């Protein structure tokens, strides 16, 4: 078995090599949130291992607590990286509080003579960081498996699986280290032989090597997903773009004939008197108005409903599997919430008119939009700020 200092040197060298390759091959070309947090985690890991080589020297008194601080920061960065895989916001303030707390504990635990200063708390933080990270990655793995279509994305799915297994191993290791440290202490033979620095360094190196290529695939996959999301979304409102919404309507039309008692509806929404907002306050105010309508409308819809911006101040909403009464109720909620919202200039939001048409598999997308448009124009002619439903008998008159 190699001595502890040699293992620490190897761990630092391996981590630095992985850091360099990952930074040049993934972070620089993608700048994805995951790759950013993972790069910071690698920096912390390499620095922490290097500082521990100073144990036994006169600077141990500060090098040891700094290593503890960086190890805790690395664990937080790993957790934040995994949270970004599902676009979850991270409590970044913990990156200051937790590592500094571990640093303070180490400072008051005789770091000049105690090479294990603060490690009881640190092991708990490491177990929590790796455990939370593993939980996030397993959740991402389940999500990716459901989303995968045939062979597409299989490499990213396997990469997530490998990372989830590695994260779980590290979480279990640090839970065991924390428990053993608190019960028998770091000088006990059981701890030294099975959970000591040598075992931990080897495990970290093996996991690091195992996930190197997996992490690269995950970083690129996140970048690809972000580009795909931008291509599908409207830049201003964050809703579906015109092409993506039309594809969603086509899907509903294709399914309309094969579902009994499941009615689907296309709604076209148009803000009333929107042009005066642009004329009086400028296009920036008009943009804020559109953004606030998008926020209000989305908050009133179910997760299964789809909403997109068709262009200008016109929006489309797709309801699947509901009766007309449910559609009408949702649209009333949107209209009511608009009256309680100002448009960014201190003035009330414009009212909105809706045109509704039922999906049928014998209609084309263009024909369905034509019906919804006809209903919308009827709502406008009838005084605006209301909902009109396409009536084939009335339209044929």
In short:
With 397 residues, the protein is of the alpha+beta class. Helix content is 66%, strand content 7%. It has a five-stranded mixed beta sheet, with helices on both faces.
Structure explained in plain terms:
It is a single chain. This protein is an alpha+beta fold. It has 14 helices and 5 strands. The protein has a 5-stranded mixed β-sheet, sandwiched between helices. α10 (275-281) crosses α11 (283-300) and α11 crosses α12. The termini are far apart. The model has no long low-confidence stretch (mean pLDDT 84).
List the helices and strands and how they pair.
Blueprint: H1 4-30, H2 33-52, H3 60-84, H4 94-107, H5 119-147, H6 154-183, H7 189-194, H8 197-232, H9 242-256, E1 265-271, H10 275-281, H11 283-300, E2 306-311, E3 314-319, H12 324-338, E4 352-358, H13 365-381, E5 387-389, H14 392-395
Parallel strand pairs: 4-5
Antiparallel strand pairs: 1-3, 1-4, 2-3
Helix pairs in contact: 1-2, 1-8, 2-3, 3-4, 3-5, 4-5, 5-6, 6-8, 10-11, 11-12
């Amino acid at each position: 078995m190699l001595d502890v200092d040699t293992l620490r040197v190897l761990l630092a060298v391996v981590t630095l090599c992985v850091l360099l390759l990952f930074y040049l091959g993934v972070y620089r070309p993608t700048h994805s949130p995951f790759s950013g947090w993972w790069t910071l985690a690698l920096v912390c890991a390499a620095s922490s291992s290097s500082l521990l080589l100073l144990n036994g020297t006169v600077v141990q008194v500060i090098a040891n607590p700094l290593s503890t601080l960086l190890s805790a920061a690395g664990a937080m960065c790993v957790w934040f990286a995994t949270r970004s895989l599902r676009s979850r916001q991270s409590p970044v303030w913990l990156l200051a509080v937790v590592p500094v707390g571990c640093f303070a504990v180490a400072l008051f635990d005789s770091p000049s003579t105690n090479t294990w200063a603060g490690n009881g708390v640190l092991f708990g933080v490491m177990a929590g960081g790796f455990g939370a990270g593993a939980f996030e990655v397993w959740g991402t793995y389940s999500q990716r498996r459901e989303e995968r279509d045939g062979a597409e994305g299989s490499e990213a799915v396997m990469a997530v699986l490998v990372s989830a297994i590695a994260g779980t191993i590290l979480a279990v290791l640090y839970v065991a280290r924390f428990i053993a440290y608190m019960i028998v202490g770091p000088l006990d033979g059981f701890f030294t032989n099975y959970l000591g620095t040598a075992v931990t360094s080897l495990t970290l190196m093996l996991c690091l090597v195992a996930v190197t290529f997996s992490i690269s695939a995950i970083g690129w996959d996140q970048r690809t997903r972000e580009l795909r999301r931008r291509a599908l979304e409207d830049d201003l409102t964050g809703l579906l773009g015109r092409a993506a919404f039309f594809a969603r309507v086509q899907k509903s039309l294709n399914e309309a004939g094969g579902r009994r008692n499941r009615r689907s509806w296309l709604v076209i929404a148009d803000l009333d008197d929107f042009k005066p907002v642009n004329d009086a306050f400028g296009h920036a105010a008009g943009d804020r108005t559109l953004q606030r309508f998008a926020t209000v409308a989305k908050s009133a819809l179910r997760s299964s409903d789809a909403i997109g911006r068709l262009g200008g101040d016109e929006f489309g909403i797709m309801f699947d599997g509901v009766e007309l009464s449910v559609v009408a109720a949702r649209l009333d909620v949107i209209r009511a919430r608009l009256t309680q919202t100002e448009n960014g200039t201190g003035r009330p939001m414009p009212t909105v008119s809706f045109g509704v048409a039922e999906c049928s598999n014998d209609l084309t997308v263009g024909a369905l939009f034509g019906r919804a448009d006809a209903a919308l124009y009827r709502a406008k002619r009838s005084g605006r700020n209301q909902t009109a439903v396409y009536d084939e008998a009335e339209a044929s008159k």
